[in-house]
Amino acid sequence: MPLKKMFQWALLIGGAGACVALLRALHVPGAVLLGPMLVAIGFALSGVGLELKAGIFLPVQAVLGCMVASVVSWDLLQLIADHWAVVLAVNVLSVVAAGAVAVVFTRSGWLPGQSAIWGLSPGAASTMMMLGEQRGADPRVIALMQHLRIVCVTLTAIAVAGLAGAGSGSDASASPPVTVFLSGAVSVDVAATLAGLIAAGVAVAIAAKWGQAAFWVPVIVGSGLHAAGLAAVQVPAVVAAAAFAFGGCYAGLRFNRQVLLDCLHLMPAMVLGILLMIGSCIALMWPILRSFEGIDVLTAFLAIMPGGIDAAVAVAHGMHACVPVILAVQVMRLIVVTLLAPQMARLVSRYCKPRQPG
Predict the structure, then answer these.
(1) How far is the C-alpha of 133 from the C-alpha of 61, rounded, in Å?
(2) DSSP at 48
(3) Which keywords label this protein (predicted)?
(4) pLDDT digit string, tens, across residues 9-56
């Protein structure tokens, strides 16, 4: 690696660490995710050319899968079983709402071609970019919309956490928060289980050429082992923090200055579409609040936010949020988006034609 590139990486890492320290000093929720993301966006837009290949992100996805598995228990499975109809309904409705917004933007010609259909999906970003490009949509627009969505949703979640966190303690008392981090010494058994799950997830993802396997293998295998009491799945705090920080850098470096300049005239429409999608998810908070007794607004928002489990857990940690409820809804979202969103996008793109100018 050239000396100049090494110096740039060192600056990025140092800047990310400094930003995390500053945000934590200001008591900003999710600082370990937000700090590296903001610094990485700055580096990406400066044109220095730093990038992280998608394959490098696989271990991070595996760690996030282990975090989910670490809180899976019979109580969580019972929670999902008791509220499966509401959890399934709100997630299906979020995908339908994203499709409805995309139809309006496509037919109005506010975004080119069918980019809105693929760019506004509340998840499965890599799948949406691949399928959209196959259907003739501009992958640069889709990628920019997906990355903007992640940033906007993360910032919104942090704002909600800042506003609601101070007053959520009494509401959350009925459902005490569950940490996904292991503090203190790490036993050999815990370290071996964690390493094995991460290695298995990465290996299956590479062999199957399906990146999401890196997340799902630890979730499925680890959850089974953890719930059955066969192995303790726990994630050390330093590993969790590193995963969040790396995920923030990965998302931030995905921005491209040239693409941003080329799509600058589309930014108002992109941001409006993302805000409408976030607004529709906020409306879907109320069924969750009514269904799950004793939870607060912050928990309901983090559960339905269209930004992924990693951002939701990062913001929830240290706040008065009920992690099992968040995971119950977010895990179902992953399933629904993975299965339904591509089919919804194909259906809409087949019958929805953009308005021709003139």
Answers:
(1) 24
(2) -
(3) Membrane, Transmembrane, Transmembrane helix
(4) 899 999 999 998 998 888 776 678 778 888 988 888 887 777 777 677
Find, among 301, 342, 296, the residue nearest to 98 by Cα.
342
Structure tokens given for 271:
């941001």
Q: Please give the Cα distance from 308 to 334 (Å, whole number).
A: 8
**Full-model pTM:** 0.69
- Write down the residue that tokens 């990486």 correspond to: 9
In angstroms, rounded to a whole number, what is the distance separating the alpha carbons of residues 282 and 278? 6
Output the CA torsion 41→42→46→50 (10° steps). -50
Other Cβ atoms less than 10 A from the Cβ of 236: the count is 17
Residue found by looking up tokens 């837009």 in the block: 45
- Per DSSP, 1 falls in state -
Long-range CB contact pairs, 130-138, < 8 A, 24+: 131/342, 131/345, 131/346, 132/345, 135/346, 135/349, 137/113, 137/349, 138/112, 138/113
CB 119 within 8 A of CB 146: yes
DSSP code string of 161-192: HHHHGGG-TTGGGGS------B-S---HHHHH
The C-alpha atoms of residue 317 and residue 178 are separated, in whole angstroms, by 8
